[in-house]
Amino acid sequence: MDCTNVQTLLDIYLDRELDAVRNLEIEAHLEGCARCSQSFGDRQIIRYGLKTESLYFKAPADLQKRIQRSVREAARAEMPTPWFSLSWMRIAAPMTAAALVVLLLIPFIKGPSTDERLTEDIVGSHIRSLMVNHLADVPSTDEHTVKPWFNGKIDFSPPVSDLAKEGFPLVGGRLDYLNDRPVAALVYQRDTHVINVFVWPSDKSAQISGPIKTRQGYHVIRWASAGVNFWVVSDLETSQLAKFAELLKSSVATSPR
Ligand SMILES: [Zn+2]
Predict the structure, then answer these.
(1) From the CA of 51, how far away is ligand 1's center (Å)?
(2) Using one digit for the tens of pLDDT, what is the confidence trace for 70-95?
């Protein structure tokens, strides 16, 4: 083994990590080579010196904790933010509260009731019938003409009475569409005022009598009896319209169906 080989392996030799054959070869070389022996000596001194107490100092007691804390904080800063973290909770909590408030308010903000919506539809139909001058598909003052006209056009036979003797002559009838179904519209007149009576079947047991409602200057009276819905609408003065409604109710109750 030459000097170059020995110099290369000296540190490993010092660490006692060479195999037995190499150890013996190096030992033999060191005994016969002053230069390599000197290098070996120097390395031993350095190695010993590095082990002396004077090169070491005891760390402050809390240094370990400070380092551990710094490492933890650095690791946390690099981690992706979990969805349930505090920053998300700051956003999610008010949103959850707002959603809860909306849920609690839904019964109050769900919009107009079915009756309210129907009242507006009734008034709308009444106004349209006046605007387009399409009051009657069957213009007739004869209830015996108007009533049969609906046969085959709708799935029920509307009660039709002429109230001319009471001052509310029948003008005619037409088909209309309300409450998601075709309905019969019976048209009456009082002086220059037109009265639309919308009629369609109701629950047999329904006995409804609503108060007079006023929308856009038109008055609406509704009731249900004997399995029929009646919705009366006109710009006629309310006491007159109420009188008409009472007359219609009694005539329907007494007339054969
Ligand atoms: Zn040598």
Answers:
(1) 27
(2) 888 888 887 765 555 666 677 777 77
Ligand 1: centre distance to CA 17 (Å): 20
CB 9 within 8 A of CB 36: no
Instruction: Give Cβ neighbours of residue 168 (< 8 Å, ≥ 6 apart).
Output: 188, 189, 190, 195, 244, 247
How remote is the CA of residue 45 from the centroid of ligand 1, in Å? Answer: 18
Which sign does the torsion angle of CA 185, 188, 197, 233 carry?
positive
φ and ψ at 156, to 5 degrees? -155, 165
Which tens digits make up the pLDDT trace of 142-156?
Answer: 999 999 999 999 999
Q: How many helices (H) and strands (E) does the chain have?
A: 8, 8
DSSP, collapsed to helix, strand or coil, labels residue 182 as: strand
Tell me how far apart the alpha carbons of residues 146 and 138 are, in angstroms, rounded to a whole number. Answer: 6
Is 0.70 topped by the overall pTM? no
Q: How far is the CA of 49 from the centre of ligand 1 (A)?
A: 24
Separation between Cα atoms, residue 145 and residue 32, nearest integer Å? 143
Q: How far apart are the CA of 50 and the centre of ligand 1, in A?
A: 25
**Tally of CA atoms within 13 A in the half-sphere of 78 that contains its CB:** 6
Taken in order 114, 120, 126, 130, is the CA torsion positive or negative? Answer: negative
Taking every pair of Cα atoms in the chain, the longest distance, rounded to a whole number of angstroms, is: 150
Ligand 1 centroid distance, CA of 2 (Å)? 6
